[in-house]
Amino acid sequence: SSRIFSGMQPTSDSLQLGNYLGALTQWVALQEGNEAIYCVVDLHALTVSPDPAVLRDRTRRTAAQYLAAGVDPERSLLFVQSHVPEHAELAWLLSCHTGFGEAGRMTQFKDKSGKQGSEGTTVGLFTYPVLMAADILLYDTNLVPVGEDQRQHLELTRDLAQRLNTRFGAGTVVVPEPHIVKSTAKIYDLQDPTAKMSKSAASPNGLIELLDDPKVIAKRIRSAVTDTEREIRFDPVNKAGISNLLTIYSALTGRSIPELEASFEGRGYGDLKVELAGVVVDWVTPYQERVHGYLADPASLDEILAAGADKARDIAAVTLDRLYERTGLLARR
Ligand code: AQP
User: Fold this and answer.
1) What percentage of the chain carries pLDDT values higher than 70?
2) 10 annotated as belonging to a binding site for a ligand
3) Is 1:34 a contact under the CB 8 Å cutoff?
4) Using a CB cutoff of 8 Å and minimum separation of 24, what contacts does 18-22 make?
5) Under 8 Å CB-to-CB from 128, ≥6 apart: which residues?
6) For 252-294, how does the pLDDT look when each residue is reduced to its tens digit (9 = 90+)?
7) What per-residue confidence (pLDDT) applies to 67?
8) Is 199 a catalytic residue?
9) What is the 227 CA–ligand 1 centroid distance (Å)?
């Protein structure tokens, strides 16, 4: 049995299909036979200066979507990051072991700060990966299920873990491994199939938001950018758009890519899009019903999150005490 940890930011009303296929499906699968801990990382969301009421609402919405996707609070811990103060405390400790240049090399920081300019960029955005390392190391995590875009942050987490173990002795922290499933590690934008699908996409038409009107979802799939050939074939280099649609189709139905290629032989792109739109709508409709069910009862949702936070704190406090002791902080009496 391994310890699993992962989280998502409450930065949007709805998760997008990439979040679900790249991460959330793995979270659900890994609950079986492991000790899984899943978090709504609201402290991370503060890096983009959200409106307070909107952030609070999105935090519940994100938790409801974990549950609707199949995260089971009987088996896994589900909580909100800010309810466990040890995350922020460990982040400070780790930030004192992270090189300024090392943090500056994170491509997500370079992308996001580039868009906002240096005056619009906060120190929080810069230290974001350090807080993420704290999230992971706090629970002696073995495996972190994430999409491809988080690989570099996971490498930084591993470097920090190894550094602490070298400096303060073996066993100071557990060195985690990323769990990135190749087939769905990167779902692409429907309008720009070379860019990852993202909550903060350039054009909303490239994005599938799971809580959007199913009619809008279907339309976006039907208008996905493809290529000027006719053949439905998985070829990510030359046919990025078609390959992305096949990836999504395969992931949602469990049918293999070769099986799909065979079933679409001699048929047009329009057929693929219409059929896939049907698949997504059939899947997303009951998902939306489950989400709205959880949101209709915020007291029960908050109860689940409070129980998760209590258990998470028990684990986090032990790790933080160990790290404070090893790094030379005077024990509290
Ligand atoms: N397109 C994607 N394909 C596969 N996995 C993806 N993930 C995100 N986009 C894709 C994975 O989903 C989790 C979300 O983590 P996050 O909330 O920290 O957000 P993010 O990585 O920044 O992704 P978003 O949804 O696209 O948000 P923004 O707009 O902020 O960039 C992670 O496991 C991520 O790998």
Assistant:
1) 100
2) yes
3) yes
4) 18/147, 18/186, 18/187, 18/196, 18/197, 18/198, 19/147, 19/199, 20/69, 20/210, 21/184, 21/187, 21/247, 21/248, 21/251, 21/252, 22/146, 22/147, 22/148, 22/181, 22/184, 22/185, 22/186, 22/187
5) 44, 47, 106, 108, 109
6) 999 999 999 999 999 999 999 999 999 999 999 999 999 999 9
7) 98
8) yes
9) 26
Q: Which of 102, 167, 96, 99 is nearest to 134 (CA)?
A: 96
Amino acid 36: pLDDT:
98
Tell me how far apart the alpha carbons of residues 50 and 27 are, in angstroms, rounded to a whole number: 26
- In short, whether 196's Cβ falls inside 6 Å of ligand 1 is yes
Distance CA 199, CA 209 (A): 8
Tell me, what amino acid is at 109?
Answer: F
| Six-digit token string for 179 | 């769990």
Give residue 120's pLDDT.
Answer: 80
Cβ of 14 closer than 6 Å to ligand 1, yes or no, is no
**ipTM of model:** 0.96
Which letter does DSSP use for residue 329 in this model?
P
- Low-confidence residues in the chain, pLDDT < 70: none
Is 112 an active-site residue?
yes
- pLDDT tens column, 2-19: 999 999 999 999 999 999
Spatial CA neighbour of 8 closest among 52, 50, 63:
63
The helix/strand/coil state of 37 is strand
Asked whether the beta carbons of 5 and 136 are under 8 A apart, the reply is yes
CA of 154 to the centre of ligand 1 (A): 14
